[in-house]
Design brief:
The complex is a heterodimer of chains A (281) and B (69).
Chain A: E1 11-12, H1 14-19, E2 26-32, H2 37-40, E3 47-50, H3 51-54, H4 66-75, E4 83-87, H5 89-104, E5 110-113, H6 116-122, H7 152-161, E6 165-168, H8 172-176, E7 200-201, H9 217-225, E8 235-238, H10 244-255, E9 261-263, H11 267-271
Parallel strand pairs in A: 1-5, 2-3, 2-4, 4-5, 6-7, 6-8, 8-9
Helix pairs in contact in A: 5-10
Chain B: H1 4-9, E1 14-19, E2 28-39, E3 42-49, E4 56-59, E5 63-68
Antiparallel strand pairs in B: 1-2, 1-5, 2-3, 3-4
Classes of the chains: A alpha/beta (281), B mainly beta (69).
Chain lengths: 281, 69
């Protein structure tokens, strides 16, 4: 399946997950854009996370704190040695964001289920409404890994000096400034529309095939190299709030093996509201 | 922009996609339409162009029209 991916171990297919449903080493985490999806049915044994409540800090705008992540993973019965499989709706938008958070906090073996919730359901695999009650653990995160997270000043510098290649994974209408958010969502979150100067628009959906699984490595490489996103550069991906861009980071760093790839979780909702920040349309 | 339902009815068939001027690449692509992946922020179309070594993806935003080829 994974072919010539640089790190094929980070991607599992639905059949692998099915075969490991009873494996105590494997823990399943579902994270959906539609937060009601888990309650409507999920893979047996999967623990549901709520992207808004669980993956952000409750007051200040920031990613979940180490203590939040430790609480979540402990309740889910996860230890630092667990193999954690993440999946969700919308082709793993928030599942990949949660995966990125786990990597940021040093979890060794976190993987994505290729094709996400939709592929599992399309294949008629088992679903349940039973909520699992795993034996709690006392998970401890490691020191955060700043090499995979971009912050505002780095993005400003990249826009001004081209110190890093910028990948804007939003839809073309968001990139051009016609929309501030996906068409189906409220148009809020940033004061201005457009994109960071010099960014390449490579919508996240171009990373995947018609069935929602990732493209083979040669096709991914061709996609990015054609737009000037090459392995010798520092790369920063962004979207609106950092979840869609996690998919590009996953593809670039783990499937293609680009060494220096960061996710800008502040993304357009931060950049598009900065006073004085240069914007292209 | 083309309607997604129109594209979905043509999956599996040989089609010509007419692209907008803003689209990256050629203004027309002819080949087998492999699928349409819908998401909250739009759809991405996969097509296997005639004679190409690999399929191409294109955001539906850039597709002005489609007809059987």
């Amino acid at each position: 399946m994974a072919g010539s991916y640089a790190h094929p171990e980070v991607l599992v297919d639905t059949a692998w997950v099915y075969e490991h449903l009873s494996d105590p080493q494997v823990r399943l985490l579902e994270v959906d854009v539609d937060t009601s999806a888990y309650d409507e049915g999920h893979i047996p044994g999967a623990v549901g996370l709520h992207w808004k409540r669980d993956l952000e800090t409750p007051v200040a705008r920031d990613i979940a704190s180490p203590e939040q992540i430790e609480g979540l993973l402990s309740v889910a019965g996860i230890t630092p040695a667990s193999t954690v499989i993440l999946f969700g709706d919308n082709n793993n938008w928030f599942a990949t964001y949660a995966w990125w958070l786990l990597k940021y906090y040093g979890h060794q073996d976190a993987r994505i289920m290729n094709g996400g919730r939709k592929k599992w359901m399309d294949e008629g695999r088992p679903m349940t409404k039973d909520v699992p009650a795993p034996k709690p653990t006392a998970y401890k995160t490691k020191a955060p890994d700043p090499s995979i997270r971009a912050v505002r000043d780095e993005v400003l510098a990249a826009g001004r000096t081209k110190s890093a290649a910028l990948v804007d994974v939003r839809s073309p209408k968001e990139f051009s400034g016609e929309l501030l958010a996906p068409e189906a969502l409220p148009q809020e979150g940033a004061q201005r529309g457009g994109h960071v100067p010099g960014a390449a628009n490579i919508p996240w959906g171009e990373n995947v095939q018609a069935d929602g699984t990732f493209k083979p490595a040669d096709q991914l490489r061709a996609l990015y190299e054609a737009r000037g996103i090459t392995a010798d550069r520092d790369v920063i991906a962004y979207c609106r709030i950092g979840e869609r861009s996690s998919i590009a980071c996953f593809a670039l760093k783990y499937l293609l093996g680009y060494p220096r790839v960061k996710n800008y979780d502040g993304s357009w909702t931060e950049y598009g509201s900065l006073v004085g920040a240069p914007i292209e349309r | 922009m083309v309607k997604l339902e129109q594209l979905e009815q043509l999956i599996g068939m040989r089609v010509t996609l007419r692209l907008t001027a803003a689209a990256p690449g050629a203004p027309r692509i002819t080949g087998r339409l492999m699928g349409v992946l819908r998401a909250l922020d739009g759809a991405v179309v996969t097509i296997e162009p005639d004679g190409a070594a690999a399929p191409l993806t294109c955001h539906a935003h850039y597709i002005e029209g489609v007809e059987p080829a």
